Automatic annotation (TrEMBL):
Annotated keywords: DNA-binding, Phosphoprotein
Family matches, as Pfam families: GerE (PF00196), Response_reg (PF00072)
Kinase listed as a keyword: no
The name this protein goes by in its record: Response regulator transcription factor
Length: 201
């Protein structure tokens, strides 16, 4: 029996996925969580064979949780299942140790087949997204530039960002300027939008 952990913040979607996977003769959903910071504790308790993780979760992103899970429970495979098929997300998922990446608009039979393939040692990646990721190239932003853009998401001032990240205002301006240049945008909000669309944040 394949033991599955589901991490999905939308209750209806999580419940539907659990019902559909439980209909598979060789699968059992042993844990369901709605927040990214619940993934590792739930996995350590339920000991799943595979974790299906959404990316945009409250508490901690599925991409960050994938890396945490790899360290905490190396025997558990990770399959990212998301609405957001962005090349940068795929690249980050692979760097975090995920064994697969699927976009949610596919049929549930594909998901069940992907789970079996991942557990058989294969990598399973949405083909269209794989092609887009290859043409998009690597994330040009440094970790600090990503931190500053993430802090700027809600329209925070330079002063707010500096206080939050324990940086000087001049340093924040430098990081913002570099990020705007690398994303080919005109201001910080456009840079945030471009970075999000590419899956770099």
């Amino acid at each position: 029996m394949i033991k599955v952990l589901l991490a999905e913040d939308q209750g209806m979607m999580r419940g539907a996925l659990a019902l559909l996977l439980d209909l598979e003769a060789d699968m059992q959903v042993v844990a369901q969580v709605a927040a990214g910071d619940r993934i590792v504790p739930a996995a350590l308790e339920a000991r799943p064979d595979i974790a299906l993780l959404d990316i945009e979760l409250p508490g901690r992103s599925g991409l960050d949780a994938a890396a945490d899970l790899r360290d905490a429970l190396p025997s558990c495979k990770v399959l990212i299942v998301t609405t957001f098929g962005r090349p940068g997300y795929l690249r980050r998922a692979m760097e975090a140790g995920a064994s697969g990446f699927l976009v949610k608009d596919g049929p549930v039979e594909d998901l069940a087949a992907a789970i079996r393939r991942v557990l058989a040692g294969e990598r399973v990646i949405d083909p269209g997204l794989a092609a887009a990721a290859l043409s998009a190239g690597p994330n040009p932003l440094t970790q600090r530039e990503r931190d500053v853009l993430t802090a700027a998401v809600d329209g925070a001032t330079v002063s707010d960002i500096a206080g939050k990240l324990h940086l000087s205002q001049a340093t924040v301006r430098n990081y913002l300027s570099a990020a705007i240049g690398k994303t080919g945008t005109r201001n910080r909000m456009e840079a945030v939008r471009a970075a999000r669309q590419n899956g770099w944040l």
